[in-house]
Amino acid sequence: MEVTISLLLIFFAVALLAGWVDTLAGGGGLITLPALLLAGVPPVNALATNKSQSVVGVLTASLTLFLKGHLRGRALIPLVIAAGVGAALGTWVVQRIDTSWMSWVIPLLLIAVAFYFWLSPNLGTHESEAWQSERQWALTWAPGVGFYDGAFGPGTGSFFAASAVAFRGQTLLSATIRAKLLNFTTNAVSLALFAAGGKVIWAIGAAMMAGQALGAFIGSHTMLNGGAKLIRPLVITMCVLMSISQIAQYFDWISLN
């Protein structure tokens, strides 16, 4: 495919929107990945290039939140390590087993998250009693969602946030903020493996990285300046859309086989 200036500008704009959505609710890949595929980028290269720009988005969001006084403290280190180990293991396993079953399991999980937030309008508005200690969450959900991101990916940020609200009793805002750092870790691990295999199209990736950085920067400020109320409806919307997308891909795969 020919990479032109106009095409790079389109990718920049797409990534900017995705970065804003991803920072608030996750699911930005639902916007960027189809754009890459529609432009004629081969599927494996599209996945790899999408990871490259996604890493920049969550890194920008994490740094912005850090400078605003969030994401601090040594307690986060075990969570980061656990998520990273899970992502590395997921990326390793996905190359060695049949993962076609994920095509129908993941939509069910995404719909479950959407219903979880939809049926609980006050969920995450205030801290509640925790079902798990920080250590228990670090040994279960952090590596579990990290494994999922390394093996598959859609909705990772939503799964990190939803599990923290449900099992750690956190507010949706604080859970979403912490999810940025963990999602950066899992994306960075996956990207390192993709890059080592030479799968990233860096010219396109660079344009999308710039767009993601700006979108994530705007999204972080939106979140901290009264935009927290957007998180719940965006999470529900993106989970439903990601589920529909995965179901459509599943039936396309069946028709081809």
From TrEMBL:
It is a multi-pass membrane protein. Coiled coil: none annotated. GO terms for cellular component: plasma membrane. It comes from the Bacteria. The chain crosses the membrane at residues 75-94, 101-119, 230-251. It is found in: Cell membrane. Keywords: Cell membrane, Membrane, Transmembrane, Transmembrane helix, Transport. Pfam families: TauE. InterPro entries: TM_pro_TauE-like (IPR002781), TSUP (IPR052017). Belongs to the 4-toluene sulfonate uptake permease (TSUP) (TC 2.A.102) family. This is Probable membrane transporter protein. The lineage of its organism: Bacteria, Pseudomonadati, Pseudomonadota, Gammaproteobacteria, Cellvibrionales.
